[in-house]
């Protein structure tokens, strides 16, 4: 996470309060903690090393990136055994010594990773993304071009699906360590903060993600970036939801969706994303009637604008199917529509994302539950008919 706590007592400092070591910029809540950390916490041995590593934030980012990459490599070892990186064609990265990962939909068929597609080093992905973004800056490309290139930090260039889990987390740290040395107002550093929060969230490190996303929102507010604030607020709401703080997230979701709709209109990708997020929060609070109403209105728009196979369209249909079968008082027709919707969504998700993708797994689990409820409902209806006849 970002260094927002005292290195000695772990008191929360936010982004600006407290005191820094004059040599390496390690942060403290005051002189007493700084002296204690120097005398008893080992800082006297580390200070010069941290300074040589680029200062406290850079040193910490480099260290955490190394750890995150090692975790990702270990997690992916069964999928990458005996294969080589599709970028550098090596088993072990020549500079970092790291192993291989696979964190997208490449080569995934029916839930089993196969072939060499998508097998890569995190360092190779980071080098590729940095090169593309550097070229965009050097050539003074517009914001849309920069954004398209920035997507390489989180999206596979082969299958065009987002990385997920520990691989997304490792890339988030790689992105942050690449740009952490830039000024706070620099666009790439700001985007890297956002990407780190997304990576931590994807790997289920929600408390750490919360720290980063709160800092990200605070910076957006400081610089008066209204549109960025909407993104940061939406990201923060996602982490609140995962930390079981869903009632706190709901007004955030409502506000972001409403403002985004006013700014961009119903067919804009940001409006569709926020509609999906708002509906998901409503469903998690068992406000299924509202969720169904919103999805009935938005899914046709997403299908028309994005297509049936788009990740966002699939997520909307999943939320809709889930709300149909979970709602109190769900009818037989509701359950049948839920199963039909989820069957079709699961089939497309398996083809597009792969069977091992977390989202595909979620859809199929929901489908299994909906089928079970439908079978029970049909059996009960049959018994009721038999009783009425007799």
From TrEMBL:
Protein name: MYND-type domain-containing protein
GO MF entry, a single one: zinc ion binding
Residues of the MYND-type domain: 6-47
Keywords: Metal-binding, Zinc, Zinc-finger
SUPFAM superfamilies membership: HIT/MYND zinc finger-like (SSF144232), TPR-like (SSF48452)
Taxonomic lineage: Eukaryota, Sar, Stramenopiles, Ochrophyta, Pelagophyceae
InterPro entries referenced in this protein's UniProt entry, alphabetically: TPR-like_helical_dom_sf, Znf_MYND
Keyword Metal-binding (UniProt): yes
A UniProt-annotated Pfam family: TPR_10
């Amino acid at each position: 996470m970002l260094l927002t706590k005292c290195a000695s007592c772990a008191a929360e400092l936010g982004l600006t309060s407290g005191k820094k070591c004059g040599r390496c910029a390690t942060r403290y809540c005051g002189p007493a903690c700084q002296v204690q950390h120097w005398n008893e916490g080992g800082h006297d041995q580390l200070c010069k090393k941290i300074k040589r590593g680029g200062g406290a934030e850079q040193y910490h980012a480099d260290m955490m990136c190394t750890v995150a990459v090692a975790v990702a490599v270990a997690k992916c070892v069964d999928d990458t055994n005996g294969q080589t990186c599709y970028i550098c064609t090596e088993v072990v990265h020549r500079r970092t010594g790291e192993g291989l990962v696979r964190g997208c939909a490449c080569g995934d068929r029916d839930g089993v990773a196969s072939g060499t597609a998508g097998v890569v080093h995190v360092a190779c992905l980071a080098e590729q993304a940095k090169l593309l973004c550097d070229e965009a800056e050097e050539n003074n490309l517009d914001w849309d071009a920069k954004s398209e290139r920035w997507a390489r930090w989180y999206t596979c260039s082969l299958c065009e699906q987002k990385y997920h889990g520990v691989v997304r987390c490792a890339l988030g740290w790689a992105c942050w360590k690449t740009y952490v040395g830039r000024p706070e107002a620099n666009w790439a550093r700001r985007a890297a903060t956002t990407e780190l929060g997304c990576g931590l969230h994807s790997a289920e490190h929600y408390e750490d993600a919360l720290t980063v996303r709160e800092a990200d929102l605070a910076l957006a507010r400081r610089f008066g970036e209204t549109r960025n604030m909407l993104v940061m607020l939406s990201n923060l709401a996602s982490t609140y939801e995962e930390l079981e703080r869903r009632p706190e997230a709901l007004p955030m979701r409502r506000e972001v969706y409403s403002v985004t709709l006013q700014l961009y209109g119903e067919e804009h990708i940001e409006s569709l994303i926020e509609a999906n997020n708002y509906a998901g929060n409503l469903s998690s609070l068992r406000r299924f009637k509202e969720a169904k109403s919103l999805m009935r209105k938005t899914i046709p728009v997403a299908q028309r604008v994005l297509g049936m196979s788009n990740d966002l369209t699939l997520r909307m249909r999943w939320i809709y199917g889930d709300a149909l079968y979970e709602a109190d008082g769900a009818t037989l027709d509701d359950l049948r529509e839920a199963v039909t919707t989820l069957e079709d969504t699961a089939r497309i998700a398996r083809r597009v994302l792969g069977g091992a993708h977390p989202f595909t797994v979620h859809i199929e689990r929901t489908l299994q539950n909906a089928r079970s409820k439908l079978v029970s409902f049909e059996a009960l209806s049959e018994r009721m008919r038999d009783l009425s006849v007799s």
